[in-house]
Structures are given as structure tokens and as C-alpha cells.
What we know:
The protein is an alpha/beta fold. It folds into two domains: 4-87, CATH 3.30.1330.30; 91-242, 3-Layer(aba) Sandwich (Alpha/beta knot). It is 31% helix and 22% strand. It has nine helices and eleven strands. The chain has helices spanning 4-12, 16-22, 30-38, 67-73, 113-125, 143-148, 163-168, 206-211, 229-242, and strands at 24-28, 42-47, 62-64, 82-87, 91-92, 103-108, 130-133, 158-160, 172-182, 193-198, 214-217. The strands form two sheets. The protein has a seven-stranded parallel beta sheet. A four-stranded mixed beta sheet has the order 1-4-2-3. α5 links the parallel β6 and β7 (130-133). α5 (113-125) packs parallel to α9. The radius of gyration is 20 Å and the shape is elongated.
Amino acid sequence: MTSQARLKYLRSLSRKKVRREEGLLLVEGLxxxxxxxxxxxxxxxxxxxxxxxxxxxxDLPVHTLEQKDVGALADTETPQGVFALCRDPCAxxxxxxxxxxxxxxxxxxxxxxxxxxxxxxxxxALGAHAVVTTPGTVEPTNPKAVRASAGALFRCAVLRGELxxxxxxxxxxxxxxxxxTPLAExxxxxxxxxxxxxxxxxxxxxxxxxxxxxxxxxxxxxxxxSLNVAAAAAVLLYALAALPVEARE
Length: 249
């Protein structure tokens, strides 16, 4: 059985500060554990009694939990009883290697962890090369964000950085804005493009919008004020990824 000291440590990973200091996170649920194992991020598996386990490498430690400890570790109301201790899959933007024609999604001041996780999931599904989270955005290893990513956190590059860094790396910055250029008017996209989406009720702050290279909007039906940030990002990513890349000068 897992010791109380170890359980205390695992519970401490619910705190952002501890996760960042340790470079670790605890994920729960069969699907997330399977993805963490498949992508090589899982370091240890913890499972309650009689819980079906995913197929794991022989050298990956598997520990048994008492039923009462399953509830103590879980962040969900109806836990499946299986957890993985994982390396933090996120990296610093400055340490990343992105292709010359990279399309990245920037979460700028996104506060809701569910929305951030869905943004990561959409980016992975729609061809973005990375998601960049700027200061003021919820931590991508937040348990709710991890669950909302549906495993995409382990499959899509998630990078911590700032808009100015992207500019220094040769990215053109396009901000999603209700007052932006209609999406249908775009004919090409820059070779390196960063699409910025912002805080759910307020959007991208004015300073970021003023320093951007342009803005883009999704025309909406009359009477509809806005889309959820994750829904808007998915529409924009799909359209931008399909645009021809500007010819080299």
C-alpha cells in the first residue's frame, strides 16, 4: 500500500506552486493516464483496488491505493481510481524549436482552466504547432485544464512565454477581436503566425491589441455578441491553417 507520506506529497501537487517547483503533476482517469503513459510522461501509476489498469511498460512502477485514499487524491466527484504521477509536459518558449512556418495559438489572460484545456485540445486537433500561455493565464497543469485538454496536453507543445518573445522569434501577431478584420477577407497568412485570444469576458487587453500586426473577427449573426473563447479559437485556427502561406520576400 502507498504510505501516508507519499499520499501527502501527491496531494500537495494540487497546488500550482508545488507543481512548478517539482516539475510534476498528478493526473487522474483512465484516458489521461493512458495518454501520459503513451507519450512518455508518466513516472508512476497509482490505482485503487480492483481498478482495471492501462497497459504500462514493465519498468513503470505501479502502486496500490486503499479505497479511502482514492477519494482523498481525486479532483473529480466520481473518480475512476487510477492516477499517474507525470513530468510537466510544458516548456519555456525560449527553449522550444518551432518550424519556419509555425502557426501558434496564444492564450493571453485566459482565466478559466476549462477554456484553456479546450484551447489546447483544439490546437492539437486543428494543426497548430504550439499553444503559448502568457503571464496572467491560468496554469496549464491546473487539474481542470488537464482534464479539459482530453490528453492533448501531452501531445501538443504547450509553452510558457510572452508576446514580445514571439515577435523576436519572427512571428506576426494577429489578435482575435470583435472589431477586427472579417475572417473571410484574409487571403494569405504570414509564414510565422501567432493567433492571440484573450480573457473570456474582456478579450485581449488594449496594449496587446495596439502592438499587434493586425486583428481578425468572426462575423456573427445579429443579436449574438460573442463566442466562447475556445469556440472562437477553433473557428479561427481552422480557417487560418487552410490559408496559403505568404510567399517569401
